[in-house]
Amino acid sequence: MTMNFKPYITRDPAICGGDAVVTGTRVTVRTILASLAEGMSDEDILADFPTLNQDALRAVIAFAAFSPSPTFDDIDPIAPRQGVRQ
Predict the structure, then answer these.
(1) Phi and psi of 16, rounded to 5°?
(2) Residue 44 CB neighbours (<10 A)
(3) CA angle 50, 55, 56 (to 5 degrees)
(4) CA triplet 78, 65, 53: central angle to 5 degrees?
(5) Could you tell me which residues are beta bridge partners of residue 22?
(6) Nearest to residue 21, comparing CAs of 50, 56, 69, 46?
(7) Angle subtended at Cα 40 by Cα 15 and Cα 18, rounded to the nearest 5 degrees
(8) How do the pLDDT tens digits run along the chain, 86 residues long?
(9) Angle at 61 between CA 1 and CA 45, to 5 degrees
(10) Are 51 and 22 in contact (CB under 8 A)?
(11) Whether 7 contacts 23, CB under 8 Å
(12) Sign of CA dihedral 16, 73, 75, 38
């Protein structure tokens, strides 16, 4: 079952420069995803952002899964380190 994230995510040029935010807040989707990527638990994120609830957090994840994948064309490849086998 896919979550309907649309009621939870807003894009408005007047809010956070048009970045996707959790509706009714100034908490960006990018901030929540970065927190998850850093290893924060759901409980820690909800404690840091008391305007969010578990449904909003799940909506952020669903939104990210639904959104187009980023391209890596602008990222320079990492040069192999000496002594590291490829």
Answers:
(1) 50, 40
(2) 13
(3) 55
(4) 115
(5) 9
(6) 56
(7) 15
(8) 577 888 999 999 999 999 999 999 999 999 999 999 999 999 999 999 999 999 999 999 999 988 776 554 554 555 555 554 55
(9) 130
(10) yes
(11) yes
(12) positive
Question: 56 and 45 in contact (C-beta within 8 Å)?
Answer: no
* Strands, E assignment, the chain: 9-10, 21-22
User: d(Cα 77, Cα 50) in Å, to the nearest integer?
Assistant: 39
* Amino acid in the structure at residue 5: F
Q: Which amino acid is at 61?
A: I
Q: Is the dihedral of CA 53, 57, 62, 64 positive or negative?
A: positive
Structure token digits, residue 51: 């305007």
Q: Is 31 helix (H, G, I), strand (E, B) or coil?
A: helix
**Per-position b or e across 17-40, b if 16+ CB within 10 A of its CB:** eeebbbbeeebbbebbeebbeeee
